[in-house]
Amino acid sequence: MRKGSTGKLLTKYGIYIAFTILFIILSISSESFLTTTNIINILRQVSIIGIVAIGMSFVIITGGIDLSVGSIMALSAVVASSFAKADSSYSLFIPIIIGMTVGLVCGLINGVLVAKWKVAPFIATLGMMTAARGLAMVYTNGRPVIGLNNSYNNIGSGYILGLPIPVIIFILIVAIGIFLLNFTVYGRHVFATGGNEQSAKLSGIRVNSVKIGVYAIAGLLAGVGGMILSSRIMSGSPVLGQGYELDAIAAVVIGGTSLFGGVGSIVGTLIGVLIIGVMNNGLDLLNVSSYYQQILKGTIIVIAVLLDKKNHQ
Question: I want to staple 212 with a disulfide (CB 3.0 to 4.6 A). Which of 111, 167, 170, 218 is the partner?
């Protein structure tokens, strides 16, 4: 009985314990780690992938997957950047809305393919990953969009009340994600769809609408992430976002969201994002090769998936 209770506690709070241990070890190992400047730097580094991971959480909780978010980031970034050039007369509002709309439309297409046309999520989003990247290349003729105005660039490099703007946006999106999943009918439907789709249908839940909605959210947030990334590097490049889909999935899985669907939380994803960010930052400070960092990250992901599989046996 006691062993079972211990196992449940480790399953529920394991990632929080792991994050705390990692934080303590790195704080002891490096004098530069536990400083205000470095902590803010970590938050800035994880903010973009964190925003994308929040959207990925919704998708994976329904039992789906989205491989296209990195390419959607690139497409949204180049289109938004083209309306944010220094010689254009558009206000900041225009490129932001356009970039978010591009992401939203891509997400809706993914959702319709999965929900209405019954295309496997892996295949549907793999197709969008290739198509969106190709569209970004066509739109820019393979070249980055440069010469962006200061207002747009300030999104990625500016501060409000001492906090980087990307961090503030990330915090707001985390809060909205928590509210949607935990305190709305839609959130309950997301969990129900991932837990047992047939039972959800019998309960009167419009499963197709739920699925389209989660992919739309993922696409929208990928668009937001792409714009922040382009404003941070002051150019909209068609190669932006490469590998971000894998980091987002990793953060969600490490955070305890089940690849089988029906289980997960935004707070868990937040911790997963922070574990990756803190680990990368700490190992950089300790001069550990990036090659070993990739090995460690891959190992952590595999362990998280094995634990998830064990919990569902």
Answer: 111
